[in-house]
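To whoever is on call:

I kicked off a structure prediction for a single chain this morning and the downstream step that reads the tokens threw a length-mismatch warning. I double-checked the sequence; it's 261 residues and nothing unusual in it as far as I can see. Pasting both halves so you can look.
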Amino acid sequence: MGVYQHSFGFREPYQIIVDGNFIKVAQNARLDYKSMLQETVVGKTRIMTTNCVLNELRTLGEDFMGAALAAKRLEKRRCTHGGNPVNAADCIKEIIGDSNQFNYCVATQDLQLRDYLRRIPGIPLIYINRSVMILEPPSPATENKVKEIEYNKTIPTNYESTIIKNNTKQPEEAPKSKKRKGPKQPNPLSCKKKKVNPQQQQQQQQQQQNKKKKEEESENNEDAEVEKPKKRRRRRTKKKNHDTKNNEDNKEDFNNKTNEE
């Protein structure tokens, strides 16, 4: 229904004209056609029929009495036939007209009526097939009408065309930039390098060499301070051994003297 909303101005609640054949098939399949119509159209609906449809169902006999009672409960769409009812298909054709001015949907099982309505752009057609309610895709006449509507949107109206004609003046030329007067700056590529005196070059070289020597000397001094050997500690074990030997010798001398006495 999106095509019919955007291009033909359909709005909720959607007006659906129902004929007798559609009601009879829905009853035979035990379908709740009122709720199913809302599901197929995806929106609120106003289901209606005509007096011509009701009279046709009454003339068809007892088999269609249930459908006639169901049609009697629906909203009636006025038709011009009054006391001289006509065929239901002819009545619906007259209500739709050549352009479907009032945006009606049609639910019918009549193949000839559907073929006729497909030639008129902007008519949604609904029918039942094996207990399934189907909304037909847009017919070729509807698709061509949609293309025409979309193309007409791109064409300017009379009011817009008058504005375009009044504003189609030649554009003014952009003002030329004024050249700057005064002395120009020299081109750095064409400038010569300044000459340097040879004495100054020698002095600069000597100063650089002296700086390098001082830096090297300072680095060497730092390395020498870092690499100084540490003082080794003397071991005391040797002294202890030497003292023990002296004590033993003194003891032997003392013992010898005592023996001699």
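Update from on-call: the warning came from a stale cache, not from the record. Cleared it. Sanity check on the structure: The chain has a mean pLDDT of 82.
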